[in-house]
Amino acid sequence: MKFTDILSTEQFKRSDIELIMKFAAKFEPYAQKKKQGAMLAGKIMASLFYEPSTRTRLSFETAMKRLGGDVITAVGMEYSSIAKGETLADTARTIEKFADVIVVRHPLIGSAREMAEAVKIPVINAGDGAGEHPTQALLDIYTIKKERGKIDGLTIAMVGDLKHSRTIHSFVNLLRHYDVKLIFVAPDELKIPKEYLKKLDEKRLKYEEISDLRLACKKSDVIYMTRIQKERFSNLREYEQLKNSYVMSRGLIEKINPKAIVMHPLPRVGEISLDMDDFKGSAYFRQVENGVAVRMGILSLISQ
C-alpha cells in the first residue's frame, strides 16, 4: 500500500480490510501507551481540519507521534489561505513541499480526492462533508471484531441520521464484503440514500428499513447509534423536530437485549443516555482507543 491514498471505502477489497486489521492489532501496545515507536521518524504529517474534530484529528496526530513522526497542523478555514480564495489543489501542492502525508477534513464532498489528484504524496480523507469517513469505518470494523470476535454472521443495526452520516455511508461500503444482515433505523426524512441499498442488493445481502428502535435492539448483535447532524440541516425547525428521534438508555437495552454491543462514532448529543457509559456492551469509548491503533496501521502501510 505504499503511497496509496485513503479516499473512499470503495477502494477496499476484503483482503485490504483484513491487512489493515492485522497491522492495527500489531500497534495496539503503542496505542495503549505501552510502547513508543520510531518507524516514522523523520516523516511529517500535515493535519488539515477545516471542520470541527476532536477524536479523528487527535487520534491521527497521536498515531503519527507514537510512531516517531511529527505533525504540522491547520485547524479551521479562517486560519487558512483557503479563506483568501486559494483552491484545494494549490493548498495541497503547497503542503506537499512541507509534509510526507496529508490528512484532511473538509465540508465539501470530493475535497480529499481533489487534493490527492494534485500531489504525489498520500492523502487520507478524514471526512468530506456528508460523503465518506473511511478510517472511521475501518476502526468500526476493528472494534466489532474485537468485541464479537467476528463480522460474518452478525446482525448490525444503524440508527439515526443515516442520510447525512458519512460514517454510516463508509461503514455500509465495508460491510458489503461480509456476510451480515443490516437493519436501518431512521425517520423518513433521514433514511439511508438508495444508492447504498443498491450496493447491498448487488451483493445479495439482507437488510430492512424500520423506524422502531426497540425492535431493532431485539434483533441485533451490534447497535450503531448516530447523532442527528444539526450542521447538515438548512431548516433548523426540521432539526428540532427530529433531534430526539431515538435515544438509547440503560433501561431499554438491559430489558430488551443485554448482550448487545452499542457503538457510536461520537460526539453524542443526547441519543445515548449517560447511564449507558458503564453498561458492559457500551463500546463507544473503546472505539476511540481502537482508532489510534487503526490509524497507526494505516500510516505505517502508506508511509514506508
Notable characteristics:
304 residues; alpha/beta; Rossmann fold; 5-stranded parallel β-sheet; 4-stranded parallel β-sheet; 12 helices; 9 strands; 39% helix; globular
CATH topology of the largest domain: Rossmann fold
Low-confidence spans: none
Helical run tally: 12
H/E topology pattern: HHEHEHEHEHEHEHEHEHHEH
- Class of secondary structure makeup: alpha/beta
Order of strands in the sheet with most strands: 7-6-5-8-9
Q: Say how many strands there are.
A: 9
Shape: globular
Global mean pLDDT:
92
Supply the CATH architecture of the largest domain.
Answer: 3-Layer(aba) Sandwich
Radius of gyration (Å): 19 Å
Main sheet attributes: strand count, strand direction, barrel closure:
5 strands, parallel
Give the distance, in angstroms, between the N- and C-terminal Cα atoms.
Answer: 9 Å
The named CATH superfamily of the largest domain: Aspartate/ornithine carbamoyltransferase
Q: Bin the helical content.
A: 25-40%
Strand content: 15-25%
How many independent structural domains? 2
What is the CATH top level name of the largest domain? Alpha Beta
